[in-house]
Amino acid sequence: xxxxxxxxxxxxxxxPRGLTxxxxxxxxxxxxxxxxxxxxxxxxxxxxxxxRRNWLNDRLAAAQVAVLVLEGAPNERLPEESEARLLMxxxxxxxxxxxxxxxxxxxxxxxxxxxxxxxxLRDASWMTALKEAVEILVAPPHDMPIRxxxxxxxxxxxxxxxxxxxxxxxxxxxxxxxxxLISLLISILTAGLVYxxxxxxxxxxIRQLAANVMEFEADPENPHRIIEPSQRADEIGxxxxxxxxxxxxxxxxxxxxxxxxxLGLAVSKVNHDLRNMLASAQLMSDRLVxxxxxxxxxxxxxxxxxxxxxxxxxxxxxxxxRAAEATPLLREIALRQLVAEQAEMLGLPENKxxxxxxxxxxxxxxxxxxxxxxxxxxxxxRNSVQALAQERAxxxxxxxxxxxxxxxxxxxxxxVTDNGPGxxxxxxxxxxxxxxxxxxPGGTGLGLAIAAELVRLHGGMIELEPSxxxxxxxxxxxxxxxxxx
Length: 485
Fold this sequence. Notes:
Structural class: alpha+beta
Radius of gyration: 49 Å
Number of helices: 11
């Protein structure tokens, strides 16, 4: 069964799902909230540890006032009711202090209760304070109270209190809730401001860029779809200007290629009729062989061969319009004879105003397609003849066209040189591109483009060599393979 063609919707990339479908603005908003909350966590831990320390210091300060009252009491003892009120005001089960080496105790019990842990605020480090604060928040409160020791004022050496841990934990939880609420408000406010700023500075322009790219994709040949860059000097502005340059270049290339495609269709139609006319001319030229004129009989075979080659060229042009040049049929040929035949087609031996030198060794054998290599030579030599004709019209002197070749490491190096005006600098960048690399005024550049394509089909290379005068085109044909390699 024949498979149906895939349309554009089937070939399109499926949209992502889940959180990845969020827009850039939404992602920035979520990330900003997340990062602010992470920053608040780093601030929260020292804050809650400091809150715990201050809460305990407040209880110690109240305990020191109770110690001062205890020092002024007669018989170093207060009534039981007064002790209860002092302990309730401090929020402690017991208060103790050491004054002058003697320990003073304020407690409703005769013996201080057993404690779950001891907290000494006199030399506690920040790491210890952070660790103990996290333990109070995470672990459940102890049933037994804790003992807190702090620096005393006046004549006392130190002061200590025994308090329950539950009130401290409740106070820290309330403080944590307040911190969380404030952090959320700060995060939302910051994220909103960042969202608005980024949406104005980045997301909005990027959306415009994306919309323009999609519009340009729908109709790339429309010059009105090219983006108009803003005057921004940042990366967005650079992207807009780069996109505008790319769109202008691409639109120009597409228009050129469309024009070339239409031109190629027209050339194929003309070439089809030209092939038929040349075939008719070849049939009529066959009769010239039977003429009695010796000169006509001598040139008739060359005329017939030339017409045959023209018909094959027309056929190849039609094939090129459908796909590309045919694969070369490689044979070993005498390169000097092939050069001489192209010189005769150009009328160089009879041209007294132009010097021609065939400096190709007679024993040099090249493995190539003779018809395609003849086209390469004919295009290169015709360009040189045209350049030399222009030089002769502008300057005095004998113009010379020389074709020479040599064999180097199995490869054949062929050079077509002349002492003409050389290749203009403007043509060097696109020298082997059709309709863009014309050397002569009014030319199309097809000759060099065809020559370059034929040489590449042979696995070789064509290039313009630097020279002080004239132009030197070098054709390199690869070495002949031996033993199946």
